[in-house]
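ugh finaly. both done.
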Amino acid sequence: MIRNMPMPDAVFTWSAEGEVPRAARPDDDDEWAAEGAVIRASPAPDGLRLSVTSHSPLSGVAVRWNRGLPEGCLVLGDAWERSYGDLRWEPPRAERALPWYWIATEPGGGIRGAGVRVRPTALCSWTADTAGVTLWLDVRSGDRPLELGERELALATLVELESHEGTAFDALGELCAALCSDPIVPDRPVFGSNNWYYAYGVGFDADAVLRDAETVVRAAEGTDQAPFCVIDAGWSEGGTAPGGPWDRGMGTFSEMADVAARIRAAGALPGLWFRPLLSRRQVPGSRHERLDGDWPLDPSRPETLALVAESVARFRDWGYELIKHDFSTYDVFGRFLQRSDHQVGAPRWSFADARRTTAEILIELYRTIHDAADGAIVLGCNTIGHLAAGLEHIHRIGDDTSGREWERTRRMGVNTLAFRLAQNRRFFLVDADCVPSTPQTPWARNREFLELVAAGGTATFVSIDPKTLTDDVAADIARAAQRVLAGDDAGGIEPLDWQSASTPRRWRVGDEHHVCCWEQPWGADIRAAAL
């Protein structure tokens, strides 16, 4: 059962990084005050709404409920942006950050949890211990305290899951559905190619892209849906993950509208990758410090948003029907958010606008891309899904799989599919990343991953090195394409041993139980520990 979070037992604030939180005194039944800040909690039909006013700089708010977790329970949280092979059920750790939501199985069989509805204005995480549960709301603007001025900031809306009696997977699905009332998903199944995991941005041309399109079109024969052919990084100047400007391609990609037309003539729908917050040239909106040799852009500045919107509109004019935007979290924070800490709001650089929170600034970026896409499908990679839900049709839920090392696909792809699948169609269409076929990776393992992804009703992309396209591989891809494009996900999939394994082997697929073999003959490769 979903209900509003109850009123907090205590509220704390702080204004500077490292400062000890100050206890706010209750001023009324629904207000707490602390040194110029007033925090309000208001029950509403969609949950318990938290808001704040503050006449002095404010970095964060912590809200505490003195209802702890029992001994013997297991707890699962989400990831800040993509997951990095690190999601798992585990006993409560008081210091463990649980971004956005949490769910716990109790020894007596009950299941409970809580979460923040999507698109809050704070970066939100929970901690849970035997004495209580705390919600931490980071309201900084970059690495600076927020300057709210006279406005009241609607922080977040909270709900809790109480006494669920089904499976933990069903309970997580119920909680995710309650956290997003306005998901957008494509109005058609999504199957297609993406050339990253055999090309890695090097040594491919427009003819190679057309060959990819023909491969997935053959796989889709007999369906009434066209597959996608996505051109990943490497079509423009600047290296394997370059910045803009995004006004032209290089070599055989010099006429990007013609490339899109050739893909469409082959029977596929053209898609295109870009990195919106990095530029090879200094432009209005550039930060002063370089990143990866180029100039990161400040999304709090209107010049940046105008440039991003202009690029997306140009892609649409060229004829691209799926737009994949990538690296924006990395380009804002200067790192990937793979650590489960509370300091994600502290990037290497500040924003020009200290009057808005990091979350507000990122939401506006995602909305700018969505609006400029003008009906094209938007796929967000390295974006913060809890802020992008409702503004992205497809969300990459995990870090990269690999066409070079199966171990990375096992850790990243299988883990994120198991632990974030409950978000599928409740937040957006999830993308567990491409299934590669390359000489360096075992097709027997990749095929099992492909079968799960295709049966799960998620976005399904393949990255096929032509040297590996045997009759057997082509037949496997065709079976997956037929299933996805026919919408044949009746019953879906569910990880069955996910409470005891980080890459579950036992899965329910429709009405059947499948046992997957993810490890290679020597087991998991400890030499790949840095992946």
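ok and the 2nd:
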Amino acid sequence: MDEIMHNGTPVPQDEAAEQLTAETTQQPAPIAEQPAEFTDSNPETLSPEPAPRTDPATKQEVIERLKTIVYEGAQADRSELERLKMIYYRLHNAAVAEAREQFIANGGAPEAFMPQPDPEEENFKAQMSLIREMKAKAAEEQEREKQANLQRKQQIIERIKAMAVSPEEADKGYDELKKLQEEWKEIKNVPAENATELWKNYQLYVEQYYDQLRLNHEMRAYDFKKNLEIKTQLCEAAEKLAAMDDVIAAFHQLQTLHQEYRETGPVAKELRDEIWKRFKDASTVVNKRHQQHFEELKAQEEQNLARKTELCEKVETLRTDEARTYQQWDELTQQVLAWQAEWKTIGFTPRKVNNEIFERFRAACDAFFQQKTSYFKDMRETLAANLAAKNSLIAQAEELKDSTDWAATTQKLVELQKQWKQTGPVAHKVSDAVWKRFNDACNAFFNRKAEQNAGQRKEEEANLARKNEILAQLEKLAAEPAADQLQAVRALQAEWQEVGHVPFRKKEKMYRRYRELCDTIYNALHENAGRRHMDNFRRNVAEKEGNELTRERTRLLNALEAKKQEIQNYETNLTFFRASSKKGNSLVADIEKKLARLKEDLALMQQKVKAVNEQINSASQKD
């Protein structure tokens, strides 16, 4: 502050003045800016929402606005450039999305879509590059201007310092001081690191000048009165700022008021503290609202950071390894797109992490879509390999469809059908077509085979009916033995052999029944024959006596021992075959049948020996 007392005593800068200077010159913490979102050509990535204002409606309008900035030298702040960039890529991504939808509507696979290069993007980037160069040059020019302003203000300070060395110099230089003060006000920006020290020196030497000034009190009182009016108006303006809804605008207007307050001359000593306190109190209210606003903004940014971190974690933890079908991948894609849409509704995060969290989210989304692309690339290769394999099977089936080698071709086609089932799926759009070709080729052969075998099936059905009649006659013979049973069963067996084939599915069952009936009949015949044989043997033995009976018994006992030895040999062989032989079961079955017959013969011999012994005992009793 450059005010002095009317009695020439300089007013020192108190702590309140220093505090106000610090409060009013301190800039607010900058708001974190949202980076341009997902400006690549992938329609499935994010693009930011535009600011709620009248925006260019096409990419060409965006480029025209950039050209205006370039060619007319118009100034564009960073927020406008970011907004134009976001609008351009929003329109770009919308065009890509529309092309993708049209591609899918025309029958294309979603993963096969490749966006066309944007012919306007190079022009857009060129205009942005020119603007960056212009802003860089403007920044250099502003820096040179600040240095020139610094040098001029330092010269003004030196001149006021020289005018304040004595009362005589002060009296002579009053008009010049006024001009220097006006010039000081007109000189604007200086380097920020020099601003505070420069203003303090200016204030110090102005006060020293007024200490030396000896003009009449009326002129000085007039200056004090005029300065008081100006500072009172500044206080009123600062007090009104407390009611403004726009806290940021109020704070910036306060900075302007502080600049005017500092550049306004002194007031009377008895009013100095009062006017200063009033202005300071009004400034404090505005500063507190401003500080509270940024604290709330910071808290909101922390909440936004938490929400965006959560979205990052959701994308990063997606279980893409479990996706095995188009539908599963589509569901995951829709989820990621929903999270991207939610991301765009979340506000800024703290500036120091804004780019970092955005890059994390974009990297997670990019990783997901890369995995999806890789999966469908592998899937396409697999489907292509499966299609090639199925086409090979189709070619083989079509070569066989006209064959007349019914048995061999049937086996080959059945094998081809097994291979078809083992071959993986093909692309949905060709699946029905390739299956139809293969199925038609197989059906063509089997339909011809069915026509060829139609007569054969009729013959087999007739043979089936005839053999069923033979089985019925055999069942009757088994249930009601006849005198000529042996001749009858042999006649039926001969007739069975003459009848041709029956349907294959019934062949085995019918043959088993045939064997069972034949075995039953022959077993019954064998038992009857055995009984008749023993009756004849007993009659013959009854007619013998003495040595003839003894010789018969000896013969029978020798034959009995030989039969036992033969049975033992077969049982030993049977054990060997069961334990170590890998031959078929037919040989074992033959041996078992042979053993059964030998044992039957053994039992018959034992009965004969018993009959002979009974006859010998009977003859001994008669003697």
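summary for the 2nd one i guess: The radius of gyration is 59 Å.
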